[in-house]
Amino acid sequence: MIHIALFGDSIGRGVSYQEDRGRYAYLKEGFDKLTEQHGLCKVYNYAKFGATAKEGLEAFAGENIDDVQAVAIQYGGNDCTPDWAAIAKDPDSFHPPKTDLDSFEAQLTQFVEKVRGAGKVAVLVTPPPLVAERFVPWISKGLDEAAILRYLGDVHHVYRWQEQYGLAVHKVARLTQSKLFDLRAFFLLERRLEDLYCADGMHPNALGHQVIYKAIEQMLPRFTQKEIKACYELVNACVSETKLEQMRSAGASQNVQRLEMYIENHFTEPLCVQDIANALGLSASRVCALANQIEPGMTIIKLLTQKRIATAKTLLRTTKATIREIAERVGIPDYNYFTKVFKKHTGKTPSQYRNSGA
Predict the structure, then answer these.
(1) Which of 308, 300, 306 is nearest to 276 (CA)?
(2) pTM of the model
(3) CATH number of the 2-226 domain
(4) Where exactly are the structural domains of the chain?
(5) Residue 228: how many other CB atoms lie within 10 Å
């Protein structure tokens, strides 16, 4: 049985509003209990009510996850939430969410890096959708609901706003080559979504947790021990030995770490030295000098190329993606140029490398 650590919010924790008791409580048959009862997987549940991605990242640093093979990261519901009381008082001004989208993506990316640094497989989970017709009246209790609706424009805007955070999870999973558990999609397949939620329109009820359990039951067989090994190889390709040693060394250069981390997060994008320098707030010559500190003679172009080719090799070994798709995923969208660079560094074309079973 696979052991999975879960870091998330109250949905992951199995919290739902109990109308007969007039308060929130843990479900007796939450998805995590169901998966263990049926021998599907054991969930070490570190999710917390009200948690954001940043808070989860901080909590992760203090937990022992030696006994798990994978770490599920489930956030977004609280990150996208603005101050409803402030909105009710001043619906004509902009009110930011707890975590803006750029910060949310950066925090998820950092979370994935931390999980991989611990030698585990990261699984990103999309937030279930809201039932807007219930959610808006619920968060408006004791407030001016008309003012809140004025701010939103229409009741379904809150659904669309939350959906952006689900799309952000997709984006981070794609860019970091992480496993994606698209829980949101499973809920949207249900014909009567409202039947799966408690009175607040955001927390799944017992029926909703049955949906979560069935989604895990459907997805988990694809997440075999063989695939865990393949994902771990991808982790090793994406997180270089150099970076890990730099992070562990007390005397490592902070700017070198920043450079390496930036490349690891953005190597799929078209980058030049000046782009990286601007992002790090350094001069172009300083960035080039940092690359040389990593290894004598190393350049930014070499760093990017090494990262791209290492990732491409892993994808060729462990996925069925076409060579053209892999070229795009590693940041070299020109198929012919990708083939030329790959052969220069490996002595084989991508097709020859894949067929050799290397």
Answers:
(1) 300
(2) 0.65
(3) 3.40.50.1110
(4) 2-226, 240-356
(5) 16
Q: Is the dihedral of CA 116, 254, 331, 164 positive or negative?
A: positive
Percentages helix, strand, coil for the chain (3-state, rounded to 5) are 55, 10, 35
- In the numeric block, the tokens 């799944």 are attached to 204
Calculate the alpha carbon distances from 276 to 176, 198, 217, 273, 336 in Å.
18, 47, 43, 5, 26
What the block records as the tokens of 241 is 């030995």
> C-alpha 274: how far from its chain's center?
28
Q: Which CATH architecture has domain 240-356?
A: Orthogonal Bundle (1.10)
Q: Tokens for 303?
A: 């760093």
Distance linking the first and last C-alpha atoms of the chain: 30
Q: Rg (Cα) of the chain, in Å, rounded?
A: 22
The pLDDT averaged over each successive group of 10 residues in the chain (358 residues) is 93 94 92 92 95 96 91 96 96 94 93 91 95 96 96 93 94 88 92 94 96 89 54 51 43 69 87 87 86 90 93 88 91 92 93 85
> Minimal CA–CA distance to 283: which of 273, 270, 291?
273
Q: How far apart, in whole angstroms, are the C-alpha atoms of residue 127 and residue 282?
A: 37
Single out the residue of 179, 181, 228 nearest to residue 1, CA to CA: 228
Please state the length of the chain: 358
SS3 call for 85: helix
